[in-house]
């Protein structure tokens, strides 16, 4: 029997033709290839001119890879700039399908928010803002919301329940905003989303997947759903989130850079990927049916870190969708999409450790059969985002070896001037300077193009606070990024080595707020980078000074000067990590309007709504108080106990369950294991028995944890202010 979905898609005209897609990709990657080949030949000729050494062969091979990656990244910005110059009318925009469409949405859609040990009040605040923003469009009836909890902290679990209840009460959201906590959090976030799709997904045409720190404008969400309804071939619609709420210097640098330079890269990425885009795991709209049919992720062969469950599931889910004929588009012009970033370099690298393992798992998949070209390119770029660092590190080591050899071996120079010398009349020094200039041009050209574009566009220039602030911010960001790059290179290299050695990563919650990294933590975390910097600096100085000792040769500091940016980044890893983590310095920059973004100078409505959100907080239903927090509140507080029990499935209590509840009452929750406490929290009869007991039994019969919680109500009444006399 013919597949009706396939028939519908085949009858639908392509938004962008396959022939034009091939032409664009040929132009883009052909240009990248030509520039890289010219660079490789130029360096090979320079090596021949210097007299080839053994180390030159691997150096040339690694240069081919690293320069290819650099050229690829730079040409994303170049093609993005060209696309911007052509104007919006000439750009490929999938969102055009929603233009001019009004009236109610034809299908039902759902917003899903997976959470794991998060601040539930802040999460619910973002949901409140999105809810009210969609409500303002008049299309709220077409949307449901699901909080999908994988929280393992039992206290946070109870706080999530009370926050959700308060949110629903204040918004009138019962029957529209749902909360579900999985008892077993199998396969992390991918398993959480998969469980939702299998259980409730059939009700909805599409789901908007958000992270716990995601925020999206309601009008843009409605626009995305209109695109989904208008184009049956569309499987995933990804948006480019903007970073917000950066307080530390580190996050302010990130969000400024992403906001200023990011649009160029996004437009360049869209230029060639078109319908073969990728999925970044959040702030994306997904058609539920094909996702359910084709995106179930199998376990990889072997054990972690290379085998087992796929950590970076999003890339693979997009790959499976595209390989089955569905289209994945990047809605680059959707602007009301936001997220937050880790506040410190240490937190950033801890998160990178998980992403590194997930992306390296894609080595299993990149050579799989029947994968389209765009899918392989996305997997390749994801892998090289981390594998590039060890290659860069090796390139620098080999370069140090060559410099040492040349300094101490007194190698003779061949009389042959090389092809560059013959054809262009350049000396060896000039040839090396030309190559260096070309590499630095590729490295800094994206930033230069972004700054020029911002300065020449009055709307963008004003949105960043003026041209002077753009130039000053870009210069400062470039300088700090140069200091951070060697530290990140060394950290990524250690990550890759640890994964090769078989060390798998755990699943931890992300730190979203901090007052900075302590000096002790910084020196412990960056100890390897610091020691590496000390040792490498000594070697570089010896290469410069050593040959002149006891001879009449002049000291040549060329190699030390060449390595200085790398060495400074390694030596200053800990101080820079500490300084960039400080919120007070970030706030000082904000007060002076340095590194500011348009979202800070002119906040969108949905951010203002999130800042004012308070529906999740109600003193009448609160499980976050000091004396009765979380699990204790679920037992003692009548309202919290009522909410918690109402969310549990019906169950019968056994003698063993009663004995466990009695032990918890008499010995306190600290006497039970986490697994035993979790079992109690899932037993409605046991929770009711314990609630009655803490209020009715004499204090001698129960643990002080419960008596102190009950006593806290009395103190609250005693401390209440007396009414003023009339």
Question: Helices and strands in order, then pairings?
Answer:
Elements: H1 4-11, H2 18-50, H3 56-86, E1 109-115, H4 120-137, E2 143-149, H5 154-171, E3 177-181, H6 188-200, E4 206-209, E5 215-216, H7 218-230, E6 234-238, E7 242-243, H8 249-273, E8 284-287, H9 288-294, H10 313-323, E9 327-330, E10 337-339, H11 345-360, H12 373-409, H13 418-424, H14 428-456, H15 458-463, H16 467-500, H17 519-525, H18 527-545, H19 558-571, H20 573-581, H21 583-591, H22 598-601, H23 605-612, H24 631-636, H25 638-646, H26 655-667, H27 674-681, H28 684-696, H29 704-718
Parallel strand pairs: 1-2, 1-4, 2-3, 6-9, 7-10
Antiparallel strand pairs: 4-8, 5-10, 6-8
Helix pairs in contact: 2-3, 2-14, 3-8, 3-12, 3-14, 4-5, 4-7, 4-23, 8-14, 8-21, 10-12, 11-16, 12-16, 12-18, 14-16, 16-19, 17-20, 18-19, 25-28, 26-28
């Amino acid at each position: 029997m013919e597949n009706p979905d396939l028939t519908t898609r085949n009858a639908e005209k392509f938004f962008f033709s396959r022939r034009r897609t091939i032409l664009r990709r040929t132009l883009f990657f052909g240009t990248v290839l030509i520039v890289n080949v010219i660079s490789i030949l130029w360096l090979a000729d320079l090596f021949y001119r210097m007299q080839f050494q053994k180390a030159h062969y691997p150096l040339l091979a690694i240069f081919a890879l690293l320069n290819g990656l650099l050229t690829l990244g730079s040409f994303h910005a170049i093609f993005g700039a060209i696309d911007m110059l052509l104007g919006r009318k000439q750009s490929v925009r999938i969102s055009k399908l929603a233009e001019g469409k009004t009236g109610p949405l034809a299908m039902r859609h759902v917003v899903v928010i997976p959470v794991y040990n998060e601040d539930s009040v802040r999460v619910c605040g973002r949901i409140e803002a999105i809810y009210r923003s969609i409500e303002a469009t008049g299309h709220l009836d077409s949307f449901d919301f699901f909080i999908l909890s994988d929280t393992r902290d039992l206290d946070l679990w109870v706080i999530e329940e009370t926050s959700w209840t308060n949110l629903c009460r204040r918004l009138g959201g019962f029957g529209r905003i749902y909360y579900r906590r999985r008892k077993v959090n199998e396969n992390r976030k991918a398993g959480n989303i998969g469980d939702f799709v299998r259980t409730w997904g059939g009700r909805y045409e599409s789901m908007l997947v958000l992270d716990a720190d995601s925020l999206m404008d309601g009008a843009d969400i409605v626009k995305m759903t209109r695109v989904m309804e208008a184009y049956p071939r569309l499987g995933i619609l990804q948006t480019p989130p903007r970073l917000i709420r950066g307080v530390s210097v580190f996050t302010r640098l990130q969000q400024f850079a992403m906001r200023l330079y990011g649009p160029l890269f996004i437009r360049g990425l869209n230029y060639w990927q078109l319908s073969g885009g990728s999925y970044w795991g959040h702030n994306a709209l997904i058609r539920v049916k094909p996702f359910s049919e084709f995106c179930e992720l199998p376990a990889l062969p072997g054990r972690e870190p290379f085998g087992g469950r796929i950590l970076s599931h999003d890339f693979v889910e997009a790959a499976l969708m595209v390989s089955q004929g569905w289209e994945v588009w990047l809605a680059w012009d959707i602007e009301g999409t936001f997220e937050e970033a880790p506040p410190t370099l240490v937190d950033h690298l801890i998160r990178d450790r998980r992403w590194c393992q997930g992306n390296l798992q894609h080595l299993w998949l990149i050579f799989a059969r029947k994968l389209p070209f765009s899918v392989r390119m996305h997997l390749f770029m994801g892998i090289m985002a981390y594998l590039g660092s060890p290659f860069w590190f090796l390139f620098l080591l080999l370069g140090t070896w060559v410099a040492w050899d040349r300094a101490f071996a007194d190698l003779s120079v061949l009389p042959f001037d090389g092809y560059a010398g013959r054809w262009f009349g350049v000396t060896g020094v000039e040839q090396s300077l030309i190559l260096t200039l070309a590499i630095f041009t590729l490295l800094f050209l994206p930033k230069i193009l972004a700054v020029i574009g911002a300065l020449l566009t009055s709307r963008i220039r004003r949105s960043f606070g003026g041209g002077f602030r753009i130039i000053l911010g870009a210069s400062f960001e470039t300088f700090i990024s140069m200091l951070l790059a060697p530290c990140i290179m060394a950290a990524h290299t250690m990550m890759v080595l640890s994964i090769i050695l078989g060390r798998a990563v755990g699943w931890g919650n992300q730190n979203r707020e901090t007052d900075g990294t302590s000096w002790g933590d910084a020196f412990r975390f960056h100890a390897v980078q610091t020691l590496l910097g000390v040792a490498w600096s000594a070697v570089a100085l010896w290469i410069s000074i050593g040959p002149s000792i006891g001879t009449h040769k002049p000291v040549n500091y060329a190699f030390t000067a060449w390595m200085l940016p790398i060495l400074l980044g390694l030596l200053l890893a800990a101080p820079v990590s500490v300084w960039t983590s400080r919120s007070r310095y970030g706030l000082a920059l904000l007060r002076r309007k340095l590194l500011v973004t348009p979202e800070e100078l002119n906040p969108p409505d949905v951010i203002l709504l999130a800042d004012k959100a308070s529906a999740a907080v109600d003193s009448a239903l609160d499980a976050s108080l000091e004396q009765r927090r979380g699990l204790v509140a679920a037992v003692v507080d009548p309202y919290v106990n009522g909410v918690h029990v109402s969310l549990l499935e019906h169950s019968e209590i056994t003698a063993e369950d009663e004995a466990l509840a009695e032990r918890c009452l008499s010995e306190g929750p600290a006497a039970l294991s986490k697994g035993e406490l979790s079992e109690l929290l899932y037993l409605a009869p046991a929770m009711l028995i314990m609630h009655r007991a803490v209020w009715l039994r004499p204090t001698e019969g129960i643990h002080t944890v419960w008596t102190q919680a009950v006593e806290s109500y009395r103190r609250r009444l005693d401390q209440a202010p007396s009414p003023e006399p009339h």
